[in-house]
Design goal:
By secondary structure, the chain is of the alpha/beta class. The protein is built from 15 helices and 11 strands. The strands form 3 sheets. Strands 1-4-5-8-9-10-11 form a 7-stranded parallel sheet. A two-stranded antiparallel ribbon has the order 2-3. The protein is globular.
């Protein structure tokens, strides 16, 4: 593997000195870029884009051609594991992901195929290897997965949900059955992320998109416990350097201390938690990633810079900050506004790293 030319993202995750605060964006390869929309049209469908290594590589690299990003993130979907378990993932126009089968009974859970990451999800590993080759050490590559709880919500509900009625029926009425499902998912996610690391991912993130829908007790029992299990099984070194792990629970700001104790190297923040408060609460146990409101990118350039400046000042001097949005960039953002955001992070953060 080629030597890494820009490692500030990995260094920041390990709370090591950097020259400027590194930045990347969740969903940075996505619909806000006209070149992405052109690639998706050529591929035929979203899943065709994911399953073709050349297309997945092409769209992963597109934002790096436009912006001075400090990391690339594998282009894939969080629902690849449930699809490989035999649920039949498809995308309904205007409605997002759907499954042909749902998982609501013990028979449904027992019938799930336990995927082998290198074979059943080999197309993802092909994409990782292809992207690493084409990156040629430019920036690190992030691999990822959905959390067991988040994957389970889609599997039980059959797709997106506003109230999580079906999975909460399980949580309250048949918790042992939900634990059976979550345990299978935790094993599959650990296998999947380790396969990505073997294929060349240099950091991994677990997206717990729907953990914030749980009660405090429910979050610890049904979400965090299984992310802890995954973290404990992950390969934490490759190519002679650490492979950092990031946990991101949307709307999880009230549980930061618990998340910080889960064994990961960094935790992601959405925009509802002040980063100075998060830093005070977790101390130097983990790095922090975040946390500008994605909607701020609709603002004029001067206002975007003001938001970046405010968050940098809130975090303050010292190491352990990866700048990001508090959730994914939205599809109708002007790419030029994304550029203003990324450039502002590098330009305005230098004074906070003068001892680097």
């Amino acid at each position: 593997m080629s030597e890494l030319k820009n490692d500030r993202f990995l260094r920041a995750l390990m709370r090591q000195p950097v020259d400027v605060t590194p930045v990347w964006m969740m969903r940075q390869a996505g619909r806000y870029l006209p070149e992405y929309r052109a690639s998706r049209a050529r591929a035929g469908s979203f899943m065709d884009l994911c399953k073709n290594a050349e297309f997945a590589c092409e769209v992963t690299l597109q934002p790096l051609e436009r912006f001075e990003l400090d990391a690339a993130i594998l282009f894939s979907d969080i629902l690849t594991i449930p699809d490989a378990m035999g649920l039949g993932l498809y995308f309904e126009t205007g409605e997002g992901p759907r499954f042909k089968k749902t998982v609501r009974t013990e028979a449904d859970v027992n019938a799930l195929h336990m995927p082998d990451a290198d074979t059943d999800l080999g197309y993802v590993m092909n994409a990782v290897r292809t992207i690493r080759r084409e990156l040629n050490g430019r920036v690190p590559l992030i691999g990822f997965s959905g959390s067991p709880w988040t994957l389970a919500t889609y599997m039980v509900e059959g797709g997106s949900s506003k109230d999580f009625r079906e999975i909460k029926k399980l949580a309250y009425g048949q918790p042992e059955l939900l634990h059976l499902l979550l345990d299978k998912l935790a094993d599959s996610v650990a296998d999947y992320l380790n396969a990505q690391i073997r294929a060349g991912a240099q950091a991994v993130q677990i997206f717990d998109t729907w953990g914030g829908a749980l009660t405090a007790a429910g979050y610890l029992e049904f979400s965090l416990a299984y992310m802890k299990k995954i973290v404990s099984k992950l390969q934490r070194e490759a190519e002679g350097r650490p492979v950092p792990v990031i946990l991101f629970t949307k709307n999880g700001g009230q549980w930061l201390e618990h998340i910080a104790d889960a064994g990961a190297d960094a935790l992601g923040l959405d925009w509802t938690t002040e980063i100075s408060e998060a830093r005070r609460r977790v101390g130097d146990r983990v790095a922090l990633q975040g946390n500008m409101d994605p909607a701020a990118l609709y603002a004029p350039p001067a206002a975007i810079r003001d938001q970046v400046s405010r968050i940098l000042a809130s975090f303050g001097s010292g190491e352990g900050h990866v700048f990001n949005l508090g959730h994914g960039i939205t599809p109708d953002v002007d790419p030029e506004h994304a550029k203003v955001f990324i450039d502002a992070v590098h330009e305005l953060s230098a004074p906070y790293h003068q001892n680097a």
